[in-house]
Amino acid sequence: MRGGALWQLGQSLTRRLSHAHPHRTTKNRSFAAAAGELKKTVLHDFHVENGGKMVPFAGWSMPIQYKDSIMDSTINCRENGSLFDVSHMCGLSLMGKDCVPFLERLVIADVAGLKPGTGTLTVFTNERGGAIDDSVITKVSDDLIYLVVNAGCRDKDLAHIGSHMEAFKAKGGDVNWHIHDERSLLALQGPLAAPVLQHLTKDDLSKIYFGEFRKLDINGSHCFLTRTGYTGEDGFEISVSSENAVDLAKAILEKSEGKVRLTGLGARDSLRLEAALCLYGNDMEQHVTPVEAGLTWAIGKRRRVEGGFLGADVILKQLEEGPAVRRAGFFSSGPPPRGHSEILSSSGEKIGEVTSGGFSPCLKKNIAMGYVKTGYHKPGTEVKIVIRGKSNDSAVTKMPFVPTKYYKP
């Protein structure tokens, strides 16, 4: 992963940056000085001091890797643990007695059905049923929702939410928001995540399960803690005041006695691919519906009956009749598949293309996700993936590629 694959990821990140829009920031969250300059999280200097190789990503300077290889870093996350700086992502809160019905106009989740302190993955949809963005949302209480949206989608997400909020409030709806630019976000992932973090808080982490949210003190700082992550491992996302972010990162690494390592975007991408988690801009786009993306489970049962969200007519029709294309996973021979590699049937017909692919550090084989015509998505189906003009034997397989280890009761 050090050579061509790392170069290609760096090029991909650079291309995504070229399509990103400038983001509104505050001095607490980011200390970029000039217009057009890459923004920096409050941990930027800490990354550099620890050997972080910084690259452009969604308008930010972010570490792609540290002193170890992406392969070693990926494996260490699954065997021990990883600490990621994900402060480039955008956290926000929706407040008011009508925040739940407001949000349900924009997402596919049954937000009203969530118990306070619990959350779920959801999708913001457009009028055609396509994905504007995916997000983890938490119902803190009936009048408070906390959510995190992707860095590269920040501007369009905030514009989308804001415009609908104005219209909703104009009709008498009670909802407001706060964008948490004063906070940073750390992701602690892996089997040592809970044991290490337990050293830094008095709250019993064994009573917090996957998808649950708490406000609690960690290392002397008031934090928002969600038991979730983007690796398939047990772990947490920790929202902390930016002024305390570096101290918290240092404390986590110290308590792990060197077993939890700072980890960059390169390993984060290989980990999420092994867990078969979508990357917005690759595996999800504005023309892809949640049904096509294999996220039907995220559409609340009540929402499947009532609809009431943007694009519901398209999505509910797909639920009834089935979509024309579906996301599928693949094992393949030859070089690692990459985005836009053609997928052919055994008879040579083009049936789709790869959206994410690479070499799995944990499985020691090539894995990929992509969209194919319905009927070719079933595990065991033999296909060909075209790489540099050559067809390579491949087969559809079940996802995730690496079993998830979420902490559930």
UniProtKB/TrEMBL annotation:
Residues 334-402 form the Aminomethyltransferase C-terminal domain. Signal peptide: none annotated. It comes from the Eukaryota. GO terms for biological process: glycine catabolic process. Substrate binds at residue 237. Keywords: Aminotransferase, Mitochondrion, Transferase, Transit peptide. It catalyses: N(6)-[(R)-S(8)-aminomethyldihydrolipoyl]-L-lysyl-[protein] + (6S)-5,6,7,8-tetrahydrofolate = N(6)-[(R)-dihydrolipoyl]-L-lysyl-[protein] + (6R)-5,10-methylene-5,6,7,8-tetrahydrofolate + NH4(+). Its EC number is 2.1.2.10. Residues 43-301 form the GCVT N-terminal domain. GO terms for molecular function: aminomethyltransferase activity; transaminase activity. Gene3D superfamilies: Aminomethyltransferase beta-barrel domains, Aminomethyltransferase fragment, Probable tRNA modification gtpase trme, domain 1. InterPro entries: GcvT, GcvT/YgfZ/DmdA, GcvT/YgfZ_C, GcvT_C, GCVT_N, TrmE/GcvT-like. It is found in: Mitochondrion. It is an enzyme of class 2 (transferase). The keyword ATP-binding does not apply. GO terms for cellular component: glycine cleavage complex; mitochondrion. The glycine cleavage system is composed of four proteins: P, T, L and H. The glycine cleavage system catalyzes the degradation of glycine. NCBIfam families: gcvT, PRK00389.1. Belongs to the GcvT family. This is Aminomethyltransferase. It comes from Dioscorea cayennensis subsp. rotundata.
